[in-house]
Amino acid sequence: xxxxxxxxxxxxxxxxxxxxxxxxxxxxxxxxxxxxxxxxxxxxxxxxxxxxxxxxxxxxxxxxxxxxxxxxxxxxxxxxxxxxxxxxxxxxxxxxxxxxxxxxxxxxxxxxxxxxxxxxxxxxxxxxxxxxxxxxxxxxxxxxxxxxxxxxxxxxxxxxxxxxxxxxxxxxxxxxxxxxxxxxxxxxxxxxxxxxxxxxxxxxxxxxxxxxxxxxxxxxxxxxxxxxxxxxxxxxxxxxxxxxxxxxxxxxxxxxxxxxxxxxxxxxxxxxxxxxxxxxxxxxxxxxxxxxxxxxxxxxxxxxxxxxxxxxxxxxxxxxxxxxxxxxxxxxxxxxxxxxxxxxxxxxxxxxxxxxxxxxxxxxxxxxxxxxxxxxxxxxxxxxx
Length: 385
What we know:
Blueprint: E1 4-9, H1 18-32, E2 36-43, E3 47-51, E4 54-60, H2 76-86, E5 90-94, H3 101-109, E6 113-117, H4 121-127, H5 132-149, E7 152-155, H6 158-166, E8 172-174, H7 191-197, E9 203-208, H8 218-229, E10 234-239, H9 245-254, E11 259-263, H10 268-277, E12 280-283, H11 292-299, E13 304-307, H12 312-316, E14 321-323, H13 327-338, H14 342-353, H15 358-368
Parallel strand pairs: 1-2, 1-5, 2-4, 5-6, 6-7, 7-8, 9-10, 9-12, 10-11, 12-13, 13-14
Antiparallel strand pairs: 3-4
Helix pairs in contact: 1-15, 4-5, 8-13, 11-14
């Protein structure tokens, strides 16, 4: 039977990275499986259109100060009316804070609902300055309410699942994310792209990340500085934008670091060429529960150095390296990976990425919805937003 799977997400912006990619690929997969995905997101103005990932409804939402462009759905009544008009068979929510109220709506409407845990609550709270004990207590309280409110909680890695296991939640399921193994490939490696950013005798490092506090992008600059002090010849290219960009650019200038800030790279082919042409990718975010940008780099044949505090150790396996959350440790890991023969490390990175296709991810998410093969059903008329 075809299911109408209505998905909601906050904190999505034109320059968003991993979450926007996951929403797009999962929606496209649901549609290919014969279901009817409908995505509701905040934006500058109302919109309603059919896309490759299914129907996408945009509701006006205010900018969240200090986030570099994120918007949120704040009009609960309007969202509730829209949900009622859409008559979902399943609800999927990708926001554990401001949209948690939709779990109560789903219970009253008798609609099975899942919450997707895209980050660890205690990890995010720690990056905001809370002590480990305070962050853990606050996260446990939040997670207890989340687990009780939703029929299921979907976690993409064992790392993300731990905080729910800690509180004894019994409705947690594991569903990994994936990577576009066709659109991201070692064949995208481009000598011209590499030459624009680094000389032949320099190592080219790339970081594809939102420049916000929870991603700890400053660690990449610290790692570059440590490498240069040790006599390594290296350059860093940063693809991404966010509230910390100005501060990071100022730090790079003050320390005379060879860093290029590209901002958000919207062209997926251009971004793929950059990822494939780099020698290594840096993923310093300590609270990543999966790390799509890092996995994309690996699909391009570029190994990753990631934070040992994140879930990426599960994802990259022996094809990359993990390091403590400081520049010196990241520099050590970079030197270790660069010591491997280039062909060997590139082959290993691609082989590991091939374990994470989107078909596997879509099947796992549909299983969380108790959804199998589907037959078409009539679409909801447009204009209900």
